[in-house]
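Structure first, sequence second, as always.
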C-alpha cells in the first residue's frame, strides 16, 4: 500500500520527470501484487486490473521497456482469468517486440512454456523448454529449462527419462535447481517399481500437474483416490506435504499446520520431516504470529 502511494505521487508529477515510466510500470505491478496476493481475488478486481494493464500499455506502447507489463498481463490471463489463448497471444506478441534482449526473450519463452503446461499441451511446452536448453546449455537459464522439461516428463509419466535429466541437474551450480532436481529424483527412485511402472507415482504426478494448473480441487480428488487405493503407502508423507502446500497456496494456514504436524508424527524417519518442521516454524512465525511455537519448531529441527 505504501509503495502504491509512492508510485502514484511520482506519476502525478507528470511525464516531464525522468521517473514517470518506471513509476507507471511499478504502480501496475504493485496493484497486481495487491490483488493476486489475496486468497480469492474477485473477478471484478481481476478484470479491473486487466483493463489497467491494457490502458497503461496503450499509453506507453509495447517495447522492451514495457516487457514486464506485457508478461504481467499474460500471466494474469493464464493463472487467474482462465484465458489461455489471450495469455499465449500476449507472450507471442512480447517475443516479437523489436530489440528485446535475447536472454530476456528466452526467459519469457520459459513462461510461455508454463502456459502451455497449464493448458495441458505439455509437448508444446517441452519444445519451448528444449529450445532454451539448447541455446543456453551452460547457463543457469538452460539448467532451469532442463528442470522444467524433466518435470514435464514426470507429469507425462515418463519417469525414467525424467530421472535421467534430473540426475544431470544435481550438479547444477544453482543450489535451488540442484535441490529441486534431487528432491524429484529421490521421489522417483523411492517409488518406481523394478519394471519402471508405478501406478501410485502416476497418480501423484497427475496431482502435481493439476496443482501447477491451479486446479486445486481436482488435485485433492486425485490425492484422495491415491490415499484410498494405497493407504499408508510409500507416498503417504508426500501426499500430506502436497496437501499442506495446497492449503498454504489457498492461505488456509491452520489446515496446512495440521498436515505438516501429521508428517512429523507419523513419519519421523522420512526425508520430508525436516521440511515439515521448517515450514511449521515459518508458518507460525510469519502467518500465525506465534513466535514461541515458531522457535520451538526451529529448535526441534536443529
Amino acid at each position: 500500500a505504501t509503495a502504491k502511494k509512492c508510485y502514484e505521487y511520482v506519476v502525478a508529477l507528470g511525464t516531464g520527470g525522468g521517473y514517470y515510466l518506471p513509476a507507471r510500470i511499478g504502480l501496475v505491478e504493485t496493484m497486481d501484487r495487491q490483488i493476486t496476493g489475496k486468497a480469492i481475488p474477485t473477478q471484478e478486481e481481476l478484470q479491473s486490473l486487466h483493463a489497467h494493464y491494457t490502458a497503461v500499455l496503450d499509453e506507453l506502447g509495447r517495447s522492451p521497456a514495457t516487457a514486464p507489463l506485457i508478461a504481467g498481463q499474460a500471466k494474469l490471463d493464464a493463472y487467474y482469468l482462465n484465458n489461455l489463448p489471450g495469455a499465449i497471444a500476449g507472450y507471442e506478441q512480447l517475443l516479437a517486440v523489436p530489440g528485446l534482449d535475447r536472454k530476456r526473450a528466452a526467459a519469457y519463452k520459459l513462461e510461455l512454456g508454463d502456459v502451455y503446461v497449464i493448458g495441458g499441451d505439455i509437448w508444446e511446452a517441452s519444445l519451448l523448454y528444449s529450445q532454451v536448453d539448447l541455446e543456453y546449455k551452460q547457463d543457469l537459464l538452460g539448467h532451469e529449462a532442463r528442470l522444467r522439461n524433466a518435470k514435464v516428463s514426470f507429469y507425462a509419466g515418463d519417469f525414467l527419462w525424467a530421472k535421467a535429466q534430473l540426475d544431470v541437474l544435481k550438479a547444477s551450480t544453482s543450489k535451488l535447481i540442484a535441490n529441486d532436481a534431487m528432491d524429484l529424483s529421490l521421489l522417483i527412485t523411492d517409488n518406481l517399481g523394478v519394471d519402471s511402472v508405478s501406478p501410485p507415482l502416476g497418480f501423484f504426478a497427475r496431482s502435481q500437474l493439476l496443482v501447477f494448473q491451479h486446479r486445486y480441487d481436482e488435485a485433492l480428488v486425485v490425492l484422495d483416490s491415491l490415499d484410498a487405493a494405497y493407504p499408508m503407502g510409500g507416498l503417504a508423507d508426500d501426499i500430506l506435504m502436497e496437501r499442506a502446500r495446497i492449503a498454504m497456496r489457498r492461505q488456509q494456514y491452520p489446515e496446512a499446520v495440521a498436515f505438516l504436524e501429521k508428517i512429523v508424527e507419523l513419519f519421523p524417519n522420512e526425508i520430508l520431516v525436516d521440511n515439515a518442521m521448517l515450514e511449521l516454524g515459518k508458518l507460525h512465525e510469519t502467518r500465525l504470529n506465534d513466535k514461541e511455537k515458531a522457535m520451538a519448531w526451529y529448535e526441534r529441527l536443529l
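Margin note: The chain is about 75% helix and 0% strand.
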